[in-house]
Amino acid sequence: GENVEQHPSTLSVQEGDSAVIKCTYSDSASNYFPWYKQELGKRPQLIIDIRSNVGEKKDQRIAVTLNKTAKHFSLHITETQPEDSAVYFCAAGSSSGTYKYIFGTGTRLKVLA
Amino acid sequence: DTGVSQNPRHKITKRGQNVTFRCDPISEHNRLYWYRQTLGQGPEFLTYFQNEAQLEKSRLLSDRFSAERPKGSFSTLEIQRTEQGDSAMYLCASSLLAVSSGYTFGSGTRLTVV
Description:
A: six-stranded mixed beta sheet, five-stranded antiparallel beta sheet, B: four-stranded antiparallel beta sheet
């Protein structure tokens, strides 16, 4: 069935260092890959997304890369700050059918000051 | 319209009782989704509406669960005969028709079954 694997489950970095979170998807029909940030007790919020016709996308300190052949995509956060501490979820969606997303299990990022 | 609104924010109920949650999506969004999130896990898809039509239901959605979106605007999710395993955060999300329109999530309803 459809599945998205996400690693690592927890990640601690020093302030100013980079953080990388990796996801792998199984459904070949997936063509849209959003990333969500969820702070404790709050709703998931979309921070960046990428479509299958693009290999990389960047927005200030955040970038996402996609390798369709290998079916994996990654989130890169540079110059991390304490306010980046949260749980990050990757997801995979398809333009065929219902456009539902399959989410990964999340990565708890801690940025140490 | 300030986003996706969910009510109530918290619900504590006794096992066996019925509960109903409401979601008001962003007004121009045609698509509405219900997800369930348990501690330490990502959101799991429950069901999807396009306008008033319920187009997909997850196998996770047992016959005790029912969802409606009667006029293509707000939606309700009802759980009958609640069980302790139903305890979770129930998230509603909405989006425009284009697949590359990311979801906007509501703040969720946290259900605790005691």
